[in-house]
Amino acid sequence: MNAQFKRGIIELCVLSMLVEKDSYGYEIISELSKFIDVSENAIYPILRRLTKDQYFKTYLESSTEGAARKYYQMTEKGFLYYVELRNQWDEFIGGVYQVIHKGGKNNEELYRRFKERIK
Amino acid sequence: MKNFIEDLKKELSKRNIAPDAIDDIIKDHEDMIKEALEDGLNEEDLIKRFGTPEHIAETLASEEEIVEQNDSKEKEEVEKDQTFAYDLDQNEISIQIELTNEDIIVKSSEKAKLTVNIENADHLEDYVVEFHDHTLNITRKKQNKMFSFFTSKAKNTKVVIYVPKDTLIKSLIDKHTNGDLELKQLKTRHISLNLVNGDIEMNEIISEGLKFHIVNGDIELKDIKANTLYSSQVSGDLEISNSMIDGDLEVRTVSGDIELEEVTCDMFEVDSVSGDIDGKEFYPKMIRFKSISGDLNIKNKEKKEIKIIKKSTLSGGINIDL
To answer: Which 3 state secondary structure label does DSSP give A19?
Structure first.
C-alpha cells in the first residue's frame, strides 16, 4: 500500500485513540500495532508533529511503576481536525464501497459473470 | 535498547535536527522503550512497533523540512489564481471536466471570450486547461488522485467557467468527487454529471437532456426547461422548482427524498427504495411508480388528469390531493 496513504490512515487512528482518552506514547504505539503493521510508518513522528501543530498538548503524570509518563491530550483544535479528517475518510471509503460493491459481494457469482463476459 | 537509542541519536544528528529537539526525541524514546522492555519486548519487536531508527529520523527530518518550506512559501506568496481565455470562432462548444475536490461554477457572461478562472489552488501547475476542437477540457494531473484528499487539505479551490452568452453548450460532462457544482443561465444540449459527494445547484438552464449520477450530494434545480431529465441518486435529496420537462422525468433514489414544486412533465417515472417524493403544483401527465417503502404525495390546486400507468410498492403509496 502506498506509504503516504497509509500514513494518513495511521494519523486518523492516532487521533481516534486520543478522542477517547488521554494516553502516553508507549500505550498508543502498542495499542495501534496490535491492529496495524506500523513498522514502516513510525507513530512517534506523527505524535510529535500533531503536538507541534497544537492538535495535542502534553503533561506529565507519575505511573504506578514510578517514572513519570508523558501523556498526550487532544486540544479543541485537534478535535476539529479529527472531525475533518474523519469526514473525509467516511466520504472516501463510502465512495470506494459504492464502486467495489456495485456487482455485489459474492465472489462465485462475480466469477461466473466474469467468465461469461470474456467467453 | 542501548543500540536502538544510540542508532537513533546518530541518525538524528546526521540530519541536522536541532540539538534541543534531539534531546527531546531521545528522552521520549528512552521512556517508551523502557516500558517496552518491561513488557518483555526484544530488539526486533522494538523495530516492529517503533520503526527503525533510520526511518524515525528520516520522517522527523522531513517533517521539520515541510514546516520550513511552508513558511517560506507563504512569504513568497505563491500564485494561487490563474485565468485562461479563449476566442470562439463559432457559438457552439463542449465542456469536459474531470476533477476531485474543487468547486465548479459554469455561468454565462457578457465577456466575449470563453474564460476559465482557477482560484485559490495550492498547486496551480497540476491543473490542465485546454481548448481545442471547440471543446474545453479541465483536468488535474493524476499522480495522487486516489488519496489526494489526504494530502491536499485545502478543499476550497474554485474553478469558474464564464461562457459568453448566446453560446450553445453541446455537451457538458462533469465527473468529480467532492466539490460542488453550480450552473447558471446556460443554453445546452446535453448535461451529464457524475458526482460522489458534491452538491449541484442549477438555475435558468435550457437543455435537451439532463443526466445525473450522484451518491451523497443534494441537487437543487430551479427554472429548468428540458426535454428529458434523468437523476439517479443514493442518499442525496433532489429539489426541482419552476421547471418544465417536455418529455420524461425519471428519478431513482435509494434513501434520498425528492421535492417538486411548480413542475410539469410528460411521464414521471420513479424508482425509490425508501426515499419519499413530495410534489406541490406538480403536473405530470402520467406516472410510473415503483418503491419499497417510499411514498409519493402530490398536492395540486388545479385539477388536471394524472394517469397512473404502473404502481408497484411494498409499503409505500400514492396520494394525490386536490
So the answer is: helix
| Percent share of chain A, pLDDT over 70 | 93
What's the whole-model pTM score?
0.58
Q: How is domain B82-321 classified at the architecture level of CATH?
A: 3 Solenoid (2.160)
More confident residue, B222 or B197: B222
Long-range contacts from A100-108, C-beta under 8 angstroms, 24+ separation: none
CB contact under 8 A, A45 and B216: no
Place of cell 490512515: A9
- Report chain A residues whose CB lies below 8 A from the CB of B47: 39
C-alpha closest to that of A90 among A3, A16, A1: A16
Mean pLDDT, chain A, whole residue set:
86
Which CATH number is A3-118's, of 3.40.630.30, 3.40.50.2000, 1.10.10.10, 3.40.50.300? 1.10.10.10
Which chain B residues have any C-beta within 8 angstroms of a chain A C-beta? 25, 28-29, 31-32, 34-36, 38-39, 47-52, 55-56, 59-60, 63, 67, 144, 146-147, 149-151, 153, 177-178, 196-197, 215-216, 234
Least confident window among B24-33, B76-85, B128-137, B170-179 = B76-85
